[in-house]
Amino acid sequence: MDNISLILLIIIITSILLIIFLLIYNHFQTYIIKINIAENNIDNTLREKFDFLAKGINIIADKTIKTEKEKELNELKEMKISNFELDRELVKVFNNYITIKEEQIKNIKNFNELLNELKETDEQLTAYKGYYNKNIIKYNKMVKMFPSNIVSKIARLEEKPFYDGKDMTDDDEQDFKL
């Protein structure tokens, strides 16, 4: 009876540990799903922003500026860059749009509508980035803290970067540029 009790105790302890492992693993999966949804929303919003900027080219009357903007967007389209970099580049393009003078625009009403659409898109993007970063904070805490860090090591889950694209674990200070 002594051996049976010991075996039963081992089975119970193993079952409890397995249940705890699965609960923590499922918690990780919940954050991974939330992060993936946020990444997808960010990606779609960046594409939408790019499309709005491309649409804005037709509103520009000045041929030199129009050609410059077309070239800028085509180069951006051809680049193999992350969403972090695409976001930064689209901000630069957007800031250049704001500096276009009224006399260089065909239809000021359409241009102002475009700027409003771009601002709304930026607000959405900011909200998605906030949601992404909020879940990254929780996920990264779980990766580092006991006992969930044991599960993360077993499942080979690693820390993820914040949306700002800064890697806090490397010595590269260039990614902290504004």
Any low-confidence stretches, pLDDT <50, length ≥5? none
Q: For the record, give the distance between the C-alpha atoms at the N and C termini, rounded to a whole number.
A: 70 Å
Q: What's the level 1 CATH class?
A: Mainly Alpha
- Annotation field: number of helices: 5
Radius of gyration of CA atoms, rounded to a whole number: 25 Å
User: What fold name goes in the CATH topology slot?
Assistant: de novo design (two linked rop proteins)
| Class from helix and strand fractions | mainly alpha
Into which percent range does the helicity of residues fall? Answer: over 70%
Rounded mean pLDDT is 87
Elements, N to C (H/E): HHHHH
Quick summary of this structure?
This protein is mainly α. It has 5 helices and no strands.
Can you walk me through this structure?
The structure is a single chain. The protein is mainly alpha-helical and 178 residues long. The chain has a single domain (2-163), classed as de novo design (two linked rop proteins), CATH 1.20.1440. The protein is built from 5 helices and no strands. The chain is rod-shaped. It starts with a helix and ends in a 24-residue tail after the last helix. The model has no long low-confidence stretch (mean pLDDT 87).
